[in-house]
Structures are given as structure tokens and as C-alpha cells.
Amino acid sequence: MPELQQAVAEADPTSTLERRRAADRERYHRRASERKAAGRCLRCGHGKPADGLTTCASCARKNRERERVRNGRLKAEGRPRRDLDQRRCADRERYRKAAEDRRALNLCSRCGKAGPAPGKKLCLDCGDKVRAMARARYHKNRKAGLRYGGRCASSRRRSARVRSERRRREWQAASMCTRCGSRPPVEGGTTCAPCRTRRQARERERYSTLRASSTCVKCASSPTFDGAAMCLACSAIEAESGRPERKNAAARRRYKQRRAANRCTECNGPSHGASRCPECARRSYERSSHFRGIPRWDPEFVVVDLMTMEEHGPFDSRADADACAAFLRLPPGGFEVVAENHPLASVGWA
After folding, report:
1. CA–CA separation, 328 vs 334, rounded Å?
2. 183-203 pLDDT, tens per residue?
3. pTM attached to this predicted model
4. Any alpha helices (H) in 110-152, and if so which ranges?
């Protein structure tokens, strides 16, 4: 039997080495569990562990000395001390545990010396240091061409939205403009007059650009047809959302304000007491039916069977009426084609 095991080991030495390592790890963990349950040093098994450690003071000193020697050798060789990912994970876990312990004692989670600032987790000095380092790192990454200073774009946008919403609520509670926070809003609104004017100018420019390119003014991605302002999908959503009522109410309110200020109700230009300026009045008149007049309607033709007095039609032309009579096999003199004119056909063009 030993000869067989030796032959297998010689044939595959790697598998034998792995089995030995697995057995050593299992024996080490079993022994460490027993010593930890007995409250002894996990390394030597004799002394009592030091505060916050799993080994006694003597073993901890020896471990540190060996670690320094090993790190010096690796540094001289140009090799990292240990795996970077493992070191980062261990550092994060150690920092997280230390921060939780310091917060439980109502101390700064970074230095653990002073109390935190009101509503913060860091003291004033640590907060200033962290902000200074963050600003320096941000400017360095921005100079390198990285967006958001090299930070995650989605998390940065989410944080910005949260800050903007909190700032907007604070300014609204203080009865200030929700965009600049420096002037009171106009009556019935949430923004001041200058901010509202700038926003409306941007919206008009965007609207004009989209209309000129035959693009939907709502989604800004779908094309429009027949000079419409919105695509079919957005038009259906707009009709179901109840916005026409609000739009009509806003139009009536705008009409009343411009009329009271003797301004044109369409372009808001000077109207000299009239409801529209001369140019808008001319366009409105040319669009009306009074200016265009009544169209001239063509006559319609009806085939009348003289035997039964039954009418067939109407038809748009005399040729169609004659074809109908031939199809019905009406004898000559047995039918009559009557031309019917529209009641307003005699009015003609205005």
C-alpha cells in the first residue's frame, strides 16, 4: 500500500501538495477555534490575547517584526506587499468598524478625538480636510479630462438631484425664487421675473428650433407631419392628460392680461387700444372665411326612371349619369337626367 501511494505521488505531485495544504489549513482552523473558545492566543496557545487582538503581546510583536522584514524585502524587489484588492477590502472593513465604534461613542468617525459637527459625522477640522482633498482630487481629474472628476456619473447626478430638490424646498419655504434664491417670486409663481423671462426665452428658442426641423416639441426625437407641433404618440398622450383645458385656461388668462395692458393678444406688441396689432389683424382676416369667400359648387346629376319615378344617383358628371342609365338598360325617352345645383351655388365668390 505505501508503494502504491508513493507511485501516485510521483505520478502527480501537484495533487499531493494540494491535499497537504488543505489538511494543514483544516488543522490550523480547528486549533485556532479551540484556542479562541478557551480565550488563549491563537498563535502560541499559552498567553492571553491583548486588547483588540487575537494574539498575545509577544506574538503580536513578533508578527509585526516579521511583517516589516517581509515588506522591506518585497519593496527592495519592487513587488507589492500583498494583493491590492485584498488590502483594499481589509482596509475598508477596518475603517468601517472603527467608524462605527467611534459613532457609538459620539466621536468623529475619522479621527475619533473630537465630537462631530451638528448634523454631521465628522468634526470641523476633519470636514475641512476631507473637502479640501475632494476639491483637489476633483480639479486634478477634471484637468485630465474625466467627467464629474472621475466619479461615478449616475451617483453624481443622483446626488445633484437630491441637493437641488433640498435647496429648492428651502428657498420655497423662505418665499424666495426657486432658481436663484435671491429675489422673491412673482405673484402666483415660484420663480422671480428675471428667471422666468430667461426660462421662457430658452423655451421659445427650443420650440422654434424643433418646429423648424419638423421635430416633436415634446419628446424632441420623433418627426412630425403636416405642420403639426407634436408627433402622433405625444398628441395622443396630450389629449388624454387633460392639458387642453389647462392650455385654454392659460390662453384666456393671457388674453385678459394683454387686453388690459392695451397689447396685441397674439404677439404682445402694441395694439393702440385694439385687440390685435395691424399685422396680426391682417393675418386673422386673411384666414377667415369672409376673406376667402364661398366656393363654387359643381352641379350633381340624378337619373329618374319615368316608369317607376325611381331616382338613381347623384353623380358628379353627366357622363356618369348616362353610364348609369345604360347599365340599367333604360329605354330612350324612359328616363330623364336632372341637374341639381347647390343652394349657395348662385352666390358665387365673395
Report:
1. 11
2. 999 988 899 999 999 999 999
3. 0.41
4. 124-143
